[in-house]
Amino acid sequence: MKSILFYLLLIGACVQKSKVVTENVLSEPQAPFVLLKNEQVKMKVYLPDIKDGIYVGTRYDHAGIIGSVRYKGHEYFGFWKEKYDPLVGMYGPAETYKTAGLGYDQAEPGESFIRIGVGFVKKEDEPSYDYHNIYEIVDHGEWLVDTGEDWISISHIIDSDFGYGYIYKKTIRLKDDGFQTEYSLTNTGEKLISSDQYCHNFFMLDGVKCNPSIEVRYPYPVTTEDDLKGLMSVTGNTLNFTKLMERGTVFMKLKGYGTSIEDNLFTVENTESGAGVTVSVDQPLVKLEFWTNGKTLCPENTIQINVAPGEVQVWNSDYTLFVK
Fold this sequence. Notes:
globular
């Protein structure tokens, strides 16, 4: 294992540049990262860095941003923005705690509240929290990183003077056909930590734009009441694209899931190339949504986090890659 100090010195001395070959990307921005690999999987993971990080906004968790995953000649993620902006740009399994944050309701404008996985941010004079807003980060908190050849562990430590504190740890481990992520949130404060948590998966299977060969499948029939704009269809347990999606967006709230942990599962596949991924999370769903802009597609699975003072909540996600 390498200490975070040694690792950051190494990164500072030799920042590497890697290109993901997709039709949507000309080049990638440079930022501190690690490369993880085993015999089958190669992964690029960006490090949390408030100054030079790949992402320095306040919507998404800064821990363990995955920029690339390669398996059997296929790429599963990538940079899909036409122009890079570290305040809004995001790669891969972008995770967030969508509720306002710890202490938001009690804070006055100009005072701080806490975004889990981000740090202390300044509340604005606004009627309610807006996750699209880019808040000022007052204090990024304490970050610790350990890494090995095929794993990385990132911890975020927060201690406030208004009753909230935590140790948030995310560990990503490669497996022969994908990767697993373990999360733990330890409440070191005096107040309950209660929030939703979801993953805005930004899949880009080989960088191909969304088209009828790409489909999303659930283990149960799903329905939606949202307008699919003639770009997608929902049939049984499957979401399909009706045409090459070159512009516009589609968002849908999905119904059909139950309270079983087994319902928190989906598969994305390019049926033409055979490349796909099955994702499962060992917590029950509280919301299921889907978003796409044609360049990337995002099955979004939301869970609930409730951690009493002195307690810890642990959960896991599993990404199994395949090529038919």
